[in-house]
Amino acid sequence: MASSSIVALSPAYAGVFHIETITAEATQKATELLQQNHEQYHIFFNELGFHNHTAHYILTAWALGATPPQLERAFNEWLHVQRPRDLSSGQRKPLGLSTATSLVDHFGKADCFNDYIQFFDGAVAKNGVKAVLEEYLFSGTELSKGMFRRLFASFLHPLIHLGFGLEFRQPAIIVEALAMTAIHFDDVGQILQRAEESSAQSEAKPMVDLIHSVMNSEVIRSGPGFRDGFKDEVKSFDAPEELISFAGQWQVSAEELEFKTAEMINVNAYFTGAAQRPTKKQKFDFFYMHNVNCSIFFTDILTQDWLSDEAKVKLLAWKGRFDIVAFGSRGAPKLDLMEIVDYKPKIPGSWDDVFDRANNFDDDSHLTKLLRALANGRRVCEPWESKFPDRFPIKGTMWLQLAHMSLDSMDNEVYFDRWIRGAGFDE
Fold it and tell me: Which of 57, 133, 248, 399 could serve as 365's disulfide partner, Cβ 3.0–4.6 Å?
């Protein structure tokens, strides 16, 4: 049985999008690999804070029908870079985190990951996932506000990790996500806090209109952005006020959660896929891709009955504002929908064919996650596309087109050249 320290997968909870048949052998193998990762490895595989994506990769590949050998290969592919969960290798006495003050005092410290794991493991074992998430993310205390801001750090990785734990009903992965959140910084969260404050004086607008407004803003397009490809934390004052204002115009109410979730998913896919240069090879932006990969979890969040509407609204509002800020931060590239519509796949095929190709590809999780998120987007957005065509630019077969584009863009590319970084910048 899954617990705060034990991973135990079940086909009954194989995610909001998964293939029809998942074998017992694959379930057992995925469970074993996830347990090993939980017990042994740190969430950062180097001192720069690059993330251990093992849990993401194994869960996504399992949901898309990977076989035990394919899962083993996915696990071993990045095993050589992993670091021990306890970076001190037992040479430092555990901190024994127990109070709000002690938790806050060690925010942003990578060498405290194991200490936070131990704390949140104990908290979830004693009080359960619901109570722990309410206390440490949604209670409104200074501690919970600091944790919530950190969910959106580092291209959404803490939020993505939490999403996996929730979607696949794995408390141990939720424990990892909370510990991961604590050791990040909150600079991006401070930008989103400013956007939330500005929303009170703003009129709500559709996300696609806000993305186009950012795209057409010379102030934003010529701004500093995030030109250092792996430097994801930007100081609050680097975000132009105009960008903050646009982000604040993405607003959500409890009555429109389902619609706005679908809208966010659709527009994420749009600006990620349509950010192409006609004279260049078709590539996806590494940073924009994370927005799409995170979007799938909001489909599941809608189903979490224990989570209050207020919490769901705040999560979706901040996610949409992050999307707008993220789009502007990479140069706000011109978007061309016809790049998607007119695309000719190198290897035409169905969704099942796409998943088979992905499971045979030496990925690091990002492509595989993108494909599952796109497949989920097709299903979630279909009821809304004809009713609100202007707000849902990605329609029908364009979802599969995007899947083929992403797969084809990886062919015969060395790892670093699989993605572009900063789609709106000329260099």
Answer: 57
Assigned token pair, 20: 């029809």
Q: Could you tell me the CA-to-CA distances from 53 to 94, 214, 325 in Å, in that order?
A: 25, 31, 24
Q: Write the CA distances from 3 to 164, 171, 366, integer angstroms.
A: 15, 5, 27
Per-residue pLDDT of the chain (427 residues; tens, 9 = 90+): 999 999 999 999 999 999 999 999 999 999 999 999 999 999 999 999 999 999 999 999 999 999 999 999 999 999 999 999 999 877 788 888 988 999 999 999 999 999 999 999 999 999 999 999 999 999 999 999 999 999 999 999 999 999 999 999 999 999 999 999 999 999 999 999 999 999 999 999 999 999 999 999 999 988 765 554 434 444 444 678 999 999 999 999 999 999 999 999 999 999 999 999 998 999 999 999 999 999 999 999 999 999 999 999 999 999 999 999 999 999 999 999 999 999 999 999 999 999 999 999 999 999 999 999 999 999 999 999 999 999 999 999 999 999 999 999 998 898 889 999 989 887 6
Place of tokens 């993220």: 326
For residue 404, give the nearest of 338, 339, 344, 342 by alpha carbon: 344
Tell how far CA 101 is from the center of its chain.
29
Q: What span, in angstroms and rounded, lies between the C-alpha atoms of 54 and 73?
A: 11
3-state secondary structure of 126: helix
CA distances from 349 to 345, 352, 353 (A): 8, 8, 6
pTM > 0.70: yes or no? yes
Residue 190 token pair: 């401070």
CA distance 235 to 282: 31
Q: Are 276 and 336 in contact, with CB atoms under 8 Å apart?
A: yes
Tokens of 323: 């999307």
3-class DSSP state of 113: helix
Residue with tokens 């035990």: 68
Task: Report helix angle 257-273 to 398-408, nearest 10.
Answer: 40
Residue 200 buriedness (CB in 10 A; 0-12 / 13-18 / 19+): exposed
Widest distance between CA atoms in the chain:
61
Q: Which residue has the tokens 């900063």?
A: 422
Alpha carbon distance 256, 328 (integer Å): 25
Give the separation between CA 83 and CA 111, rounded to whole angstroms: 11
CA distance 97 to 124: 14
Q: How many CA atoms lie within 13 A of 170 on its CB side?
A: 29
